[in-house]
Amino acid sequence: MLANDVISTGRSQAETAQIRLSLQMRYDELTVEYDQAVAQSQVLRLVEVGDTAGDDQADSGTKTAERDTAQSLLRTILDRRAQFEHALARLADGSYGWCEGCTKPIPVERLEIFPSATSCVTCQQTRERRAA
């Protein structure tokens, strides 16, 4: 372990490796979840295409709602996976654990609960208020 590693990031190489492993595992889980959701969406489309005879408005509406829900799930998984990909990139460049807004350290407790966090609670609350 080099002295610079601990000073610049506040973490040892072993801690960084553990964080990387944890982030990568969650990224991989989301990838599997995405692949499964894509497969389910394809099955849903095949059933929908093959089973439209005799559909009334309610049936069509139900199928549309199911399709929209499946698409929403896919977008959510992709967004979460992108967050973990960004966290891995930040870990690699040494900026993981530092707020992108104010550049202060993000509390360890926050990172334990939300490992892909890019901002401290204060900056996140400010961002959410502006978006509302």
TrEMBL record:
Residues in the signal sequence: none
Record key words, sorted: Metal-binding, Zinc, Zinc-finger
Domain Zinc finger DksA/TraR C4-type residue range list: 94-129
Protein name: DnaK suppressor protein
Pfam families, A to Z: zf-dskA_traR
Molecular function as annotated in GO: zinc ion binding
Highest classification ranks of the organism: Bacteria, Bacillati, Actinomycetota, Actinomycetes, Micromonosporales
Zn finger region (dksA C4-type): 99-123
